[in-house]
Structure formats: structure tokens, C-alpha cells
Write a structure and sequence with these properties.
The complex is a heterodimer of chains A (about 280) and B (about 160). Chain A is built from eleven helices and 14 strands. With about 280 residues, chain A is an alpha+beta fold. Chain A has three domains: about 5-50, Uridine Diphospho-n-acetylenolpyruvylglucosamine Reductase, domain 2 (2-Layer Sandwich); about 60-175, 2-Layer Sandwich (Uridine Diphospho-n-acetylenolpyruvylglucosamine Reductase, domain 3), CATH 3.30.465.10; about 175-270, CO dehydrogenase flavoprotein, C-terminal domain (Enolase-like, domain 1). Chain A has a five-stranded antiparallel β-sheet. In chain A, strand 4 and strand 5 form a beta hairpin. The model of chain A has no long low-confidence stretch (mean pLDDT about 95). In chain B, strand 1 (about 1-5) and strand 2 form a beta hairpin. In chain B, strands 2-1-5-3-4 form a five-stranded mixed β-sheet, covered by helices on one side. Chain B has two domains: about 1-75, Beta-grasp domain (Ubiquitin-like (UB roll)); about 85-150, DNA polymerase, domain 1 (Orthogonal Bundle), CATH 1.10.150.120. The relative contact order of chain B is 0.15. With about 160 residues, chain B is of the alpha+beta class. The chains are: A alpha+beta (about 280), B alpha+beta (about 160). Chains A and B meet through helix 2 and helix 6 of A and strand 4 of B. Bound molecules: flavin-adenine dinucleotide and FE2/S2 (inorganic) cluster (2 copies). One FE2/S2 (inorganic) cluster (FES) binds near residues 96, 97, 98, 99 and 101 of chain B.
Chain lengths: ~280, ~160
């Protein structure tokens, strides 16, 4: 038996906003539960109420159009994203990144929104979405604001989201549709494991960006690079933001080495036309 | 909270504690102890069940979240005391040693075969990626799934997984 808590499952956004306002600071949003239930199991979290958002129809669905780009609802699971035709066709980097998350059982439950809100520096979806210049729609009873994913994280497991807010949709810009890409994730084993480092590159004919996971207190991204930037400039832009540390899983030096190695590999694939 | 769910084709209506996970609910409240608890935290896959057609770690689902769901556990495999073809293949190919991972392995394999009746070795490996076995070395399990799908040419022919 887990510790005691209440369970609510609002059926509309309006109802959710009211619940979050009333229970501010004590309620915790429950999406796929793959982080929440682990934390409850370990006893490192003590919410008084879990607020299940999976019954809210407004939070579902993946939409794509040429003008507005991609919009992923908060309760969409990793598997639904990885199997979505528009994602596969226009944003294959996202399909690749979510396919890296955990095991099939986890991907059947875990949402991308939850992966982002957990705020872990090693979240696989963030590494890709940050390179694609994604932004997040944060909503509450007081209105909606949009923040860039790169500005959303403020520290390990800390984000800009306020207690009464919910991440409603993940937005990926239209001008990144069809971007060339490459992604590498370093793990200790071939099966499911979290990243020691991960690198995702997205490149269109206007811009190139490198997103990096487990290389700083939060997922990070380079400045916008020119699409024909040299490898040297690309590595310099990476070095300017990547500040890996020693921890139980890998040393700082190993991480630095592998980040550079992955950037070089992906760069060479992209520029010889093999990147996708 | 009152919940209604269908497990292995049988309808149940029960009062479930909000703070109980589906794994404990299935084992303690429904008395179906075939599903096992290893880590309790999403790592090992021993607790895998099929929920609305998809495998999940039942330790990471609250019982109350399963309200209205259709669930399949290992007890749903055998019919009238006769093992399923998949179970028979596990037995014939020595895919079971201590047996602790078996219920979960069967559920992941079952979900794969439902979607893909002739999976390749790679597809089998991907499907059981979230199920740990500390005994068999996996080779026999992969062969069992090949066998159940009528694809095993030679027993023991698979290189080490
Ligand atoms: C064994 C195991 C292996 C894993 N491997 C990986 C891996 O390889 N790569 C990886 O990136 N991750 C991995 N994870 C973590 C991954 O499963 C989670 O980060 C998952 O994506 C979280 O999504 P969820 O829907 O399950 O979130 P939940 O657990 O429901 O929620 C996570 C957090 O986000 C909050 N939240 C959720 N949705 C919203 C919302 N819409 N608005 C505001 N707040 C919200 C919750 O309150 C909670 O704090 C692993 C987890 C386990 C247990
Ligand atoms: S007991 Fe659920 S994954 Fe280990
Ligand atoms: S048979 Fe013992 S863990 Fe798989």
C-alpha cells in the first residue's frame, strides 16, 4: 500500500483549474504516473491529492498543419507520438527521441508532457524538442502563457510551472518540419536505461541547433547556428553550454568526450546526406 | 472508490483504496497471484499485464485508474486447464527456470503476437526489453516466442541474445 492520498479525475479543463486552485501546493497532477508512482513508492513525495488529467478530452490529440506546425496534447503517450503519421513524416526526430524512453510498458503509459514536467536533465524527449525550438502552452484559471522549452527549466527537477498551472500542449514550430536530424543516446546497457548523455541535432536550410541531455543541471540547447556552420563552430557552441558533472553513472571527462564524439558523428552523417 | 473492470473476460466490481496500485489490487483484492512484484518501480516488468490492449507495469498504475478497463493477466492464458500455445512453447523451450519473470514475459509476448503474429528476433527482443530475466539468459524465451509463432527452425540455433 502506498501512503494515503486522495484521487480526483476532473473531466474538463475548467474543472481541473478549479481543483488546482483550491488545492494549490497540495495537489499533484497525475498523467502516465511513471514518475509519480515511482516517487510515491520510494516515499520521496507526499501529495495529499493526485489529480488524474487523462479523462480531460481537451488535453488529447496530436494536430499538425503547415502554418502552425505540430501541437501535442498533454495526455498523449510516447507510443501515440512515436506511431503518429504526422510526427513520423514531418518531425521524425521526435519519434526517434520518444522511442528511446524506457521500455514498451513505460512508453504505453508515459506522456511527453510528464517527461518534460519532471524536469530531469536526462529526459529524452526534451533533448530533441529543445533542438526543434519547441514551446509549451501553460494554462490556468488566470489564462494561458507560452514559454520556450529552453527557458522552461530552471534547475534539476525545477521548472517555471506554477502550482495552479498545467502544461496543456507542446508546440513545435512549422519551420522545423522536415528538418534533417540525428540523435545518439549513451546508455550502460543495450536495453532500457536512462541517458549518460544524449545529443540531438536538428537542421533546416535556415538554422541548426544541438540539444543535449545530462550535460548540465537541465536539458540545454546551443545558440542558433547557421545551417552551414563548420564542425569547429558547432563544437564550440556545444562547449559553451555543456557543463557535465561527475556522478554515480559517469565521469565529467567521459561525458565531455562522448558529447563531442556524438556531435562529430551526427555532423558527419548530416553533411554527407546520411543524417536521416 | 468503487471501480468496475473486466479481468480475463470476467467482470468485477470492487471498492478500491485510492492508494493501492493495480498490481496489489489484482493480487490481494482479486486473488490473482500469477502476476508478480519484483521492483515495484517500473524497472523489472514482472508485474506486466495487458490493459486495454497494451502492456503496462501494473505497479505503476493505480487501481482506481483501471476503472472501466479491460485487463488480461497470466491467468487468462490457459483455457479449461489447458496451457495456451505460447505457454506450451515456453515449457518446451526451457524458457522458464525460477519462473518469477514468466508471467510478465508471457504478457509482453502475448501483446506482441496479438499485433504481429510473425515477429522477427529483433522485434521479440524489443517487445521484452522491459522484462528482466535473471535465469534463462533470454535466448530460450526468444526461441519460445519464435516457436509459438511457428517460426523456430532449430532449437538452440539462436546465437546468445
Ligand atoms: C524504469 C524507468 C525507466 C525510465 N527510462 C527513461 C528513459 O530512458 N528516458 C527518459 O526520458 N525517461 C525515462 N523514464 C522516466 C519517464 O518514464 C517519465 O519521465 C515519463 O515520461 C513521465 O511521464 P508520465 O506521463 O508518466 O508523468 P507522471 O509520472 O504522471 O508525471 C511526472 C511529473 O510531471 C507532472 N506532470 C505531468 N503532466 C503534467 C502536465 N500536463 N502539467 C503539469 N505537470 C504535469 C506530474 O505532476 C509529475 O510531477 C523512466 C522511468 C522508469 C520508471
Ligand atoms: S514490479 Fe512492476 S516493474 Fe518491477
Ligand atoms: S526464469 Fe527466473 S527470472 Fe526468468
Amino acid at each position: 500500500m502506498l501512503q494515503n492520498f486522495g484521487y480526483l479525475a476532473p473531466k474538463s479543463l475548467a474543472e481541473l483549474y478549479a481543483v488546482l486552485k483550491k488545492n494549490s501546493g497540495k495537489a499533484m497532477i497525475l498523467a502516465g504516473g511513471t514518475d509519480v508512482l515511482v516517487n510515491l513508492h520510494n516515499g520521496c513525495m507526499a501529495p495529499t491529492t493526485l489529480v488524474d488529467i487523462k479523462k480531460i478530452a481537451e488535453l488529447g490529440g496530436i494536430k499538425y498543419d503547415k502554418k502552425n506546425g505540430l501541437s501535442i496534447g498533454a495526455v498523449v503517450t510516447c507510443v501515440e507520438v512515436a506511431e503518429n503519421k504526422d510526427v513520423i513524416k514531418h518531425y521524425p526526430l521526435i519519434a526517434k527521441a520518444v522511442g528511446e524512453i524506457g521500455s514498451p510498458q513505460l512508453r504505453n503509459r508515459a506522456t511527453i508532457a510528464g517527461n518534460i514536467c519532471t524536469g530531469s536533465p536526462c529526459a529524452d524527449s526534451s533533448c530533441a524538442l529543445i533542438a526543434l525550438g519547441a514551446s509549451l502552452e501553460l494554462s490556468s484559471a488566470d489564462g494561458v502563457r507560452t514559454v520556450f522549452l529552453k527557458d522552461f527549466f530552471i534547475g534539476p527537477k525545477r521548472t517555471q510551472i506554477k502550482p495552479e498551472e498545467v502544461l496543456t500542449r507542446i508546440l513545435v514550430p512549422a519551420d522545423m518540419a522536415g528538418a534533417n536530424f540525428g540523435m545518439n543516446k549513451l546508455k550502460r546497457i543495450k536495453g532500457h536505461d536512462i541517458a549518460l548523455v544524449s545529443v540531438a541535432v536538428a537542421k533546416t536550410d535556415k538554422v541548426m541547433r544541438v540539444g543535449i541531455g545530462s550535460a548540465a543541471p537541465t536539458p540545454i540547447v546551443t545558440k542558433d547556428l547557421a545551417p552551414n556552420a563548420s564542425l569547429k563552430d558547432t563544437l564550440a557552441a556545444v562547449a559553451a553550454v555543456a557543463k557535465p558533472i561527475d556522478d554515480v553513472r559517469a565521469s565529467k571527462e567521459y561525458r565531455e568526450f562522448m558529447i563531442n564524439d556524438y556531435v562529430e558523428q551526427i555532423y558527419s552523417d548530416l553533411f554527407n546526406g546520411k543524417g536521416r | 472508490m468503487k471501480i468496475k473492470l473486466t479481468v480475463n473476460g470476467k467482470k468485477y466490481e470492487r471498492d478500491a483504496s485510492e492508494s493501492k496500485n493495480l498490481l496489489h489490487f489484482i493480487r490481494e483484492d482479486l486473488g490473482l497471484t500469477g502476476t508478480k512484484e519484483g521492483c515495484g518501480a517500473g524497472e523489472c516488468g514482472a508485474c506486466t499485464v495487458i490493459m486495454n490492449g497494451k502492456t503496462v507495469n501494473s505497479c505503476l498504475v493505480l487501481a482506481v485508474e483501471a476503472d472501466g478497463a479491460t485487463i488480461q493477466t497470466v491467468e487468462g492464458e490457459a483455457k479449461n486447464g489447458k496451457l495456451s500455445k505460447l505457454q506450451t512453447a515456453f515449457k518446451a523451450n526451457h524458457a522458464v527456470q525460477c519462473g518469477f519473470c514468466t508471467a510478465g514475459m508471457l504478457m509482453s509476448s502475448r501483446a506482441l503476437l496479438n499485433k504481429n503474429p510473425k515477429p522477427t528476433v529483433d522485434e521479440i527482443k524489443h517487445a521484452i526489453e522491459g522484462n528482466f530475466c535473471r535465469c534463462t539468459g533470454y535466448t530460450q524465451i526468444i526461441e519460445a516466442v519464435q516457436d509459438a509463432s511457428g517460426q523456430l527452425k532449430k532449437k538452440g540455433g539462436l546465437k546468445r541474445a
